[in-house]
């Protein structure tokens, strides 16, 4: 006869499994924040009420580190993120010999220009400059900015501008180095300094910021696994005093890399994990994914510890406006889909004489059952129709659900199979009564490769 203890244990495990399945069906998870690509080394920048999230990029077929370019995502609510593709790559540095090694970057704004500090593993640290945060970024020096006799340790740069206007650049593994930057942000002043008070548990990936008179340095802490530790100082040049862990090192983590920002009165810590990879295989590859959570400060300036990234992620700031064009690569969560670039050319002109009109980032690799979740969509007093710009292959349909992936269907767009050379068309469907704010799910149905999606929007009543 089964003992009561074993019976209770079985019931607990079954209940836990059912709860996990139900959670998966309702797609409450928001971790990691990017699902269409493998991303790492988050470098958030706040500019004009928008968060610009620059990340390194692990290729889909990476086994060890395979990193060729740097990507950009943006958000205005910390929940829905829009992909903008690669904003820089190793190819932007003519002096860098390798075709791999695009490691952790950071971008900072000064006087209307944007400076991106880029390490190329084994080739030092370079700098790129742009007139806006979307790029294009260009190399103003034609050579490395940081040139030392410990070039293999020169990784993970973090720029910081103090209140007096003096700029600094910090970097390094296994030691912390820093140098003063001149006002032009592309030249240095003085010698490179090896920080003598390297914080306890420092591994790599420093991130420096200032808050309420205190200087902070967060970093990948311990190895391995790596959590996110931090130290504090009364000066940008130290001494640095270890204060604890922002995110614990645990069996859930392996590598990590912090990015810390203040946005609309709240504080956020970014890092990365292997959680997306673990959803598909138990085999370890270097394919990481960016995570993010709100963080909180104690009195005295120390930071409250968290064991790991929360499943649900932070509370959304504001809502999304569905009555303006929403790029299809804007999402809080997705399953199955990928993104790519579609190049639009002049039509009815020989292929070798036509001019490129524009590049469009689109949703691709769409199959039956794939979906995109967009969180906190504000329909106000209601919508009359749904429009989508797409190109069909085998056709299918888009079902718009509210509240859950199997929630009420408020619109269905029928997508006929292509018979027109794959031209892009805007299709529409009436919307049933929907008011107020809802999460929406664009659920894709059909057979084989369905279609590609450029953008969508709702029309007001």
Description:
By secondary structure, the chain is mainly beta. The chain folds into two domains: 258 residues, Tachylectin-2, Chain A (5 Propeller); 135 residues, Galactose-binding domain-like (Jelly Rolls, Sandwich). Helix content is 6%, strand content 46%. It has two helices and 30 strands. The strands form eight sheets. It has a five-stranded antiparallel beta sheet, with no helix packed on it. Strands 21-24-29-26-27 form a five-stranded antiparallel beta sheet, with no helix packed on it. A hairpin with a 2-residue loop joins β1 and β2. The longest helix is centred in the N-terminal third of the chain and has 23 residues. The radius of gyration is 24 Å and the shape is globular. The termini are far apart. The relative contact order is 0.12.
């Amino acid at each position: 006869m089964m003992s009561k203890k074993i019976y209770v244990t079985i019931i607990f495990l079954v209940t836990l499994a059912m709860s996990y399945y139900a959670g998966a069906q309702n797609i409450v998870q928001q971790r990691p924040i990017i699902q269409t690509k493998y991303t790492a080394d988050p470098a958030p920048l706040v500019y004009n009420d928008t968060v610009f999230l620059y990340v390194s990029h692990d290729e889909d077929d990476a086994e060890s580190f395979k990193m060729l370019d740097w990507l950009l995502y943006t958000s205005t609510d910390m929940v829905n993120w829009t992909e903008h593709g690669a904003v820089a790559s190793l190819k932007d540095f003519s002096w860098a010999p390798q075709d791999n090694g695009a490691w952790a970057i950071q971008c900072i704004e000064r006087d209307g220009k944007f400076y991106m500090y880029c390490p190329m593993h084994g080739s030092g640290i370079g700098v790129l400059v742009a007139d806006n945060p979307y790029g294009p970024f260009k190399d103003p020096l034609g050579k490395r900015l940081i040139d030392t006799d410990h070039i293999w340790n020169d990784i993970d740069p973090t720029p910081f501008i103090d209140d007096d206007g003096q700029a600094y650049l910090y970097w390094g593994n296994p030691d912390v180095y820093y140098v003063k930057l001149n006002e032009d942000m592309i030249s240095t002043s003085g010698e490179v300094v090896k920080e003598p008070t390297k914080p306890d548990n420092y591994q790599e990936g420093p991130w420096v910021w200032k808050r309420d008179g205190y200087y902070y340095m967060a970093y990948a802490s311990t190895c391995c696994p790596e959590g996110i530790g931090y130290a504090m100082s009364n000066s940008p040049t130290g001494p640095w005093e270890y204060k604890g862990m922002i995110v614990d090192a645990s069996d859930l983590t392996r590598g990590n890399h912090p990015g810390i920002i203040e946005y609309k009165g709240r504080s956020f810590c970014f890092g990365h994990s292997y959680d997306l990879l673990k959803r598909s295989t138990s085999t370890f590859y270097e394919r990481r994914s960016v995570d993010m959570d709100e963080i909180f400060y104690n009195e005295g300036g120390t930071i409250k510890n968290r064991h790991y990234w929360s499943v649900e992620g932070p509370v959304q700031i504001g809502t999304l406006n569905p009555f303006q064009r929403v790029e299809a690569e804007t999402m809080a969560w997705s399953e199955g889909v990928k993104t790519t670039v579609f190049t639009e050319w002049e039509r009815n002109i020989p292929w070798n004489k036509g001019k490129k009109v524009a590049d469009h980032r689109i949703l691709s690799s769409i199959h039956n059952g794939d979906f995109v979740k967009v969180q906190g969509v504000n329909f106000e007093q209601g919508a009359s129709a749904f429009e989508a710009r797409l190109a069909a292959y085998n056709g299918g349909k888009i079902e718009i659900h509210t509240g859950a992936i199997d929630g009420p269907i408020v619109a269905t767009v029928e997508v006929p199979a292509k018979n027109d050379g794959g031209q892009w068309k805007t299709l529409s469907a009436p919307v049933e009564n929907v008011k107020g704010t809802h999460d929406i799910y664009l659920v894709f149905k059909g057979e084989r490769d369905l279609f590609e999606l450029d953008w969508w929007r709702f029309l007001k009543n």
